[in-house]
Each structure stands twice: as structure tokens, then as C-alpha cells.
Design the sequence.
């Protein structure tokens, strides 16, 4: 009798396992990434996943002598090595480079099934403590390599965005915007912090980036959503998925734009002075939609999250629908492709990489964790036209590739923050390779 019971149980488990495998079997993307890029990307019907796809290349780092592959006419070398999860960069007026060695602040809660699985299977730093440190790199002889390294400030809670305004260095941590009295040339941030404002913390998207407009004298703070699609309700997402505008002189702030699921890199377009950002879109609708994007951030605009994406495509999973609002959601300016996870953004003028890269934006694509085949894992350039917007018919141009193996199973590195070095090139933070790469024109 017991044998019969065991056989029945085994059969039930076999059937249940087969059903689970059938439901969970990952469905590859049906379109190439290129088709879902540009000002008019192909937006196909969503394919809601009954079980989330999680495909994150293992973090292997770079073998000795290996480096990313630069585009024709460019070369790449290491500006600094042996860092500890470098994610974000900031250039001081004297050329010193600040590097935020940082990660998520402890256990990441409130991110739902997608985030939990990505954390469990993900490469990089998802299961390690954040270094909580900013280091200062100095190239003393102008050879494109940082000869000096200093611990600039430690003990901050997941520091990320940095901005120098007069004699104050502003630093955005996961839960606060701080400022420190600072003199350019110092190698240590010794002053006590002043809390400028509290920021919402916790959840899936922990980065808090900054951009300063010296003409308007306004500081912008980007805060991502706490969940994929307001999984815990919209009320739990207060002051999230938004860009905040702050007047540093008075401390007055307001929500500048909303509905941006996870805005990270921000920069000012040099011809117009307008604020732009790259945004990481939602997960769970298949490998082809929606596209992550680059967009001008307009005062009072709403970009649709969580109810809709790409200016009016309704997400069928979100409760409390707002059909009357569809006509008001702003369509982003440029699609970067599905699930490429754009983090870094820097406009071109100070990079001096030649005529091909003279007018437009560099974007660091950290790479997908939920697409087969993987997407992103590269640095791209988005060409702009004369009026301060992406050129008609433009597509992203590869700047640095080769961050994974050909099968997308192993990641040697993952690009994050990007900035111009102010002299002759572009700096790229690689948080898996623990390197800052220096991209210059091949002369």
C-alpha cells in the first residue's frame, strides 16, 4: 500500500513539476534590440509572464590584459583598477574624479517577485554589503591614469549622486540629500553633513542621482519607484518615480516631473540647457516591451508609470486604471531598447571623441536581468540634431561593447556611470570589473 501511495505522490510531483516548468519556461525575445530603439520604436503587444524571466550573466570580472571593445576610431584603457563596486562618477573643477563605491542599502524589500529573483540570481553586488564610500582619483601627470587615490568620505548610506554648488558638495544618499562644506583640491571630505532634505528610501530602486543647472540655480534629484508597477499601491509610492527640483538657496523643493519608473542618469543638453534623463522601464511584459528610454524631463510632465508606458500603452496588470489620463501622458523622446537598464548619461562636448561623437549623449547601459538574449551591457551614443533633440532616424551607436561573452552567460563588466573627463575622453564606471575605463580618440 505504501508503495502505491509513494508512486501516486511521485506521479503528482512529476506532473506538477512539468506544469511548473511549462509555465516558467523562459520565452525568448521575438525582436532584435535595434527594432525597439529610436524615436519610433516598434511597440508590440505585451506577453505577460506567468513566471518572471531572470537571466543575469555571472559576474566573472576581466582576465588580465582584457578590456571592453571600443568603436572604430576609439581606444580604451584603465583609468583606475581594483575599486570596490564603483557605480557613479563626478568631476570636480580641478579635474579630480569622485567615485561612489556603493550598492543597495542592506536587504532590498518591497520589490516583489521580480526583484527578489533578480537579487537571488543576479551578478555583481546584489548579495554583498554596500561599500558606502566615495573615493577621489587624481591624474597628476595628465597621462590618462589616476596615480593617486584617496578615501574621500566613508560611512555614508549608499551614496550616489554628487554636485558641487559654490563651496558646498551635495551628496545624495539612499534616504537623504546632504551637503558638506568643501574646498576644491581637498582630498578628504571632513566637514559635518547638513541634511538638506529627507528622501524616500527602501524598495527596489535605491539610487539617488543629482544634476545642477547653474543658470536656473536649481538642483534636480532623481528618485526611482519602490516596486515594479506600484505592487503595494500608489500611495506607497509617494514622491517616487519622480524628479525633484530644489532651490539650494532657500531649501524650497517641488516635484518637477512624475511617472518615470526609475530615472537614474541626468544631464543638461548643452545647446538648450534643458534637463534630460535616462529611465529604466517596467518588467514582466516579455522581452520586447517596453523600451527603456532617454527623454527631456519637462516641468509638470507625467510619463505614465505605473499605468502606461511609451506615452499611452496601457499596462494591463495595474489596478486603479486611469483611462482618462492617457491623453496627458508624455511620450519619451528616444527609445534605447527593451530592458537595457540605462544608468549613466553624459552629453558630448567635453569628451572630444571626434566628429562622429560631437553632438549627442553617451549612455551607460548596465544590462538586462530579465531578457533572453540579454540586452544592454554596453555604452552607446545617441546622435542629436541642431535643435537639441535626437536626430531624425537616429539609432544608438556602440561606443564600448564586449562586456559579456558571446552567449551572454558571463559578464566581465557592467557599465554604470559615464562622464566626460574634461580633457580628451570619456570615463566609464564598471561595477563588476571594478574598473574606471578611459575612452579616447585613437590618434
Sequence:
Amino acid at each position: 500500500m505504501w508503495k502505491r501511495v509513494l508512486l501516486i505522490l511521485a506521479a503528482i510531483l512529476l506532473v506538477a513539476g512539468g506544469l511548473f516548468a511549462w509555465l516558467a519556461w523562459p520565452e525568448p525575445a521575438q525582436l532584435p534590440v535595434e527594432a525597439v530603439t529610436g524615436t519610433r520604436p516598434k511597440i508590440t503587444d505585451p506577453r505577460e509572464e506567468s513566471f518572471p524571466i531572470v537571466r543575469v550573466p555571472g559576474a566573472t570580472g576581466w582576465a588580465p590584459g582584457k578590456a571592453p571593445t571600443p568603436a572604430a576610431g576609439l581606444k580604451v584603457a584603465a583609468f583606475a583598477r581594483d575599486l570596490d563596486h564603483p557605480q557613479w562618477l563626478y568631476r570636480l573643477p580641478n579635474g579630480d574624479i569622485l567615485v561612489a563605491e556603493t550598492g543597495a542599502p542592506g536587504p532590498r524589500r518591497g520589490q516583489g517577485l521580480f526583484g527578489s529573483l533578480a537579487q537571488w540570481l543576479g551578478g555583481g553586488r546584489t548579495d554583498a554589503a554596500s561599500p558606502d564610500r566615495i573615493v577621489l582619483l587624481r591624474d597628476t601627470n595628465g597621462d590618462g591614469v589616476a596615480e593617486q587615490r584617496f578615501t574621500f568620505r566613508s560611512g555614508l548610506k549608499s551614496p550616489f549622486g554628487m554636485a558641487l554648488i559654490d563651496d558646498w558638495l551635495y551628496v545624495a544618499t539612499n534616504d537623504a540629500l546632504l551637503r558638506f562644506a568643501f574646498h576644491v583640491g581637498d582630498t578628504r571630505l571632513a566637514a559635518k553633513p547638513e541634511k538638506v532634505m529627507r528622501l524616500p528610501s527602501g524598495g527596489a530602486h535605491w539610487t539617488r542621482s543629482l544634476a545642477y543647472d547653474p543658470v536656473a540655480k536649481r538642483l534636480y534629484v532623481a528618485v526611482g519607484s519602490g516596486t515594479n508597477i506600484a505592487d503595494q499601491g500608489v500611495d506607497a509610492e509617494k514622491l517616487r518615480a519622480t524628479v525633484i527640483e530644489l532651490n539650494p538657496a532657500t531649501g524650497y523643493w517641488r516635484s518637477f516631473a512624475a511617472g518615470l519608473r526609475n530615472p537614474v542618469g541626468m544631464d543638461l543638453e548643452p545647446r538648450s540647457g534643458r534637463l534630460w534623463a535616462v529611465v529604466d522601464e517596467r518588467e514582466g511584459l516579455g522581452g520586447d516591451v517596453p523600451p527603456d528610454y532617454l527623454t527631456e524631463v519637462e516641468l509638470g510632465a507625467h510619463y505614465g508609470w505605473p499605468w502606461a508606458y511609451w506615452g499611452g500603452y496601457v499596462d494591463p496588470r495595474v489596478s486603479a486604471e486611469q483611462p482618462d489620463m492617457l491623453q496627458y501622458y508624455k511620450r519619451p523622446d528616444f527609445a534605447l531598447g527593451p530592458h537595457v537598464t540605462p544608468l549613466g548619461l553624459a552629453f558630448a562636448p567635453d569628451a572630444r571623441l571626434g566628429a562622429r561623437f560631437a553632438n549627442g549623449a553617451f549612455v551607460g547601459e548596465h544590462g538586462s536581468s530579465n531578457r533572453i538574449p540579454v540586452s544592454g551591457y554596453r555604452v552607446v551614443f545617441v546622435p542629436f540634431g541642431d535643435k537639441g533633440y535626437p536626430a531624425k532616424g537616429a539609432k544608438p551607436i556602440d561606443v564600448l561593447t564586449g562586456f559579456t561573452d558571446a552567449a551572454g552567460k558571463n559578464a566581465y563588466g557592467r557599465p554604470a556611470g559615464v562622464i566626460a573627463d574634461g580633457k580628451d575622453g570619456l570615463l566609464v564606471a564598471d561595477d563588476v570589473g571594478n574598473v574606471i575605463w578611459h575612452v579616447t580618440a585613437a590618434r
